Amino acid sequence: MKKILDLITDEVTEAFTACGYDAKYGRVTLSNRPDLCEFQCNGALAAAKEYKKAPFLIADEVAAKLAGRPMFSAAESVKPGFLNLKLKEEYLASYLSDMQADEGRYGCEKPGQPKTIIVDYGGANVAKPLHVGHLRSAIIGESIKRMGRFVGHRMIGDVHLGDWGLQMGLIIVELKERKPGLVYFDESYTGEYPAEAPFTISELEEIYPTASKKSKEDEAYREAAMQATGELQQGRRGYRALLSHILNVSVTDLKKNYESLNVSFDLWKGESDAQPYIPDMVQRMKDEGFAYMSDGALVVDVSEETDAKEVPPCIILKSDGASLYSTTDLATIVWRMQDYNPDGMIYLADKRQELHFIQVFRCARKTGLVKPETELTHIGFGTMNGKDGKPFKTRDGGVMRLEYLVNEINEEMLKKINENQKSKENLSISPKEAEETARMVALAAIKYGDLSNQAGKDYIFDIDRFTSFEGNTGPYILYTIVRIKSILNKYYGAGKNTEGAAIEGAHSGSEKNLMLELSKFNEVVANAFDELAPHKLCAYIYELANAFNSFYHETKIMSEENERIQKSYIRLLELTKSILETCIDMLGFSAPERM
Q1: Angle of the 89-101 helix axis to the 509-519 helix axis, nearest 10
Q2: What pLDDT does 255 receive?
Q3: Helix (H, G, I), strand (E, B) or coil at 83
Q4: Maximum distance among all Cα pairs of the chain, rounded to whole angstroms
Q5: pTM score of the predicted model
Q6: Continuous segment of H or E residues that includes residue 316
Q7: Total number of domains constituting the chain
Q8: Which of 341, 373, 350 is nearest to 333 (CA)?
Q9: I need a labelling partner for 363 at 20 to 30 A (CA). Which of 37, 124, 581, 594 fits?
Q10: Residue 19's domain spans which residues?
Q11: Residue 277: what are its φ and ψ, rounded to 5°?
């Protein structure tokens, strides 16, 4: 169904054209003075110059045409030439009823031509635990994937594992030092390799930092690791078998950690999956004259005349023939185009990697790896900082493991929920339910705390604020949903029903305000996905939660004596709950039954 702003614009545009003015002046926007009106049109101010007429006279004419139309309760001309508009309560109620009838979509139209879009997020390195630096890409990427699916596109999430660089050689060399008798190091071995890995995830997570530290202190050790990396990349059987073990053990652990964030991927591909595509890609770039040698490295020039700053060439191969991130990213584009032919690819990565993606995207376009119309987008996110304004660290100054952060917030939420239960003598939940509720609310605190900030900006990760049940927080949004659920349970638990009932025109200012917020849903969702901006969805549900709570505090819902009005209230609450739950699902979390 059409967005309410479009419907209002259609009506006002018709009035403009009926008065002899161009249709372009009929655009309507939300009012920037909600104390005066709900919607406004400033077209008369712009039309005045073209038609050499005072703007208030144009606005007067259009307002006269709108008078008496069933959409508006007020359409007023205000000097110097504004049109102030208010919707009729009955019209708004009818619009919401149509939204409610469109169960699951609530007025959101699916695109005529759905797109296939790959979202590249996660970016974890194998053999290393997830840390807080992985949080933003996972949370933002998951939300964008979910928003796109709700809108109606085919969204494919890819974890894009880091599994091909020097870290692999470091692990191999350290493992060889510890267990030199393993069959993987015997180059003459031609049999089958063991199905079980020669290490656990705990051992693997200890091996890499140990090896990394040694490589910085021992040049010979580093040389051996670089040689092992080269042999792995050239296909040495034993090392490829070890890589397979490393991937299997790591991915099992990574899946568990991502699941704790309610994050999932359709593809568990890594840099190693791009390797088979590199030789042909490089040869093609050479044959077609795009790639040339510069200081021993193979590069493609990606500078453009309009560049305000220098954009260096994109390095395809280093002087020793080794590939880089740019090489594997370009080869990954090759296989994605071959296997999925996507309309777009979205990359979640720190904003400090902006130059890298400019080079890779330009190189992909220049060399024809993508079609001209294929959209390539980098969402560069800011840093998650501690209260001191510096990147978030553990108390001893190290990088915090993600699972420790999640556990810390789970414990904080469980403490608050247990304290909350003590203050409510008539509400007692079991320890198991309390733990599950704490987990759900903690996830909302983490995700909403991140997503409510514009992706490109740094933000302060404040556990005390994020876990608060008041203010612009995840727990506040969940508390609002739980409050609605409680009212609905009481209503239906009393044996009542809403059979044959529909949402009526508002009976108060707070009710109409809630209805107006609900009517914005399809506009907000479309806009949030178009701009790849989950923070806009967060801003909307915060305003919607505030509107509901104002209505709730001013309205005696359960004690309303008029049965027809009470049924209308309940239908309105059901729509509010559905919209809020749909939104938080797009943000990647859900609400418990009780809190």
Answers
A1: 50
A2: 94
A3: strand
A4: 93
A5: 0.94
A6: strand 314-317
A7: 3
A8: 341
A9: 124
A10: 4-87
A11: -90, -10
Residue 572 and residue 503 in contact, taking contact as beta carbons nearer than 8 Å: yes
Rg (CA), the chain: 29
CB under 8 A, 24+ apart: contacts of 12-15: 12/41, 12/43, 12/62, 12/66, 12/83, 12/85, 15/62, 15/65, 15/66
Cα dist from 246 to 125, 169, 466, whole Å: 11, 12, 36
- Any idea how long the chain is? 595
What is the residue-averaged pLDDT of the chain?
95
| Amino acid at residue number 447 | K
CA distances from 216 to 227, 299, 495 (A): 16, 29, 72
In the block, tokens 């309760």 appear at 73
Domain containing residue 27: CATH number: 3.30.1360.70
User: Cα(217)–Cα(589) distance, rounded to whole angstroms?
Assistant: 45
What is the token pair recorded at 273?
Answer: 């999956």
Give, for 33, the enclosing helix (H) or strand (E). none
User: Residue 52: inside a domain, yes or no?
Assistant: yes
Task: Please provide residue 328's backbone torsions phi and psi, each rounded to the nearest 5 degrees.
Answer: -70, -35
Tens digit of pLDDT for each residue in 432-480? 999 999 999 999 999 999 999 999 999 999 999 999 999 999 999 999 9
The alpha carbon of residue 530 and the mean position of all alpha carbons in its chain are separated, in whole angstroms, by: 12
Q: At what angle do helices 534-554 and 474-493 cross, to 10 degrees?
A: 50
pLDDT digits (tens, 9 = 90+) for 151-166: 999 999 999 999 888 8
E strand or H helix that includes residue 405: helix 402-422
Of the residues 87, 114, 131, which one is the last residue of a structural domain?
A: 87
- What secondary structure letter does DSSP report for 30? E
Domain end point (choices 48, 66, 87): 87
Considering the domain architecture, whether residues 74 and 179 belong to the same structural domain is answered as no
* 3-state SS assignment for residue 200: coil
Kindly list the distances between the CA atom of residue 383 and the CA atoms of 142, 401, 455, in Å, as whole numbers in the listed order. Answer: 18, 16, 9
Q: Which long-range contacts (CB under 8 A, 24 or more apart) does 14-20 make?
A: 15/62, 15/65, 15/66, 16/43, 16/47, 16/62, 18/65, 19/58, 19/61, 19/62, 19/65
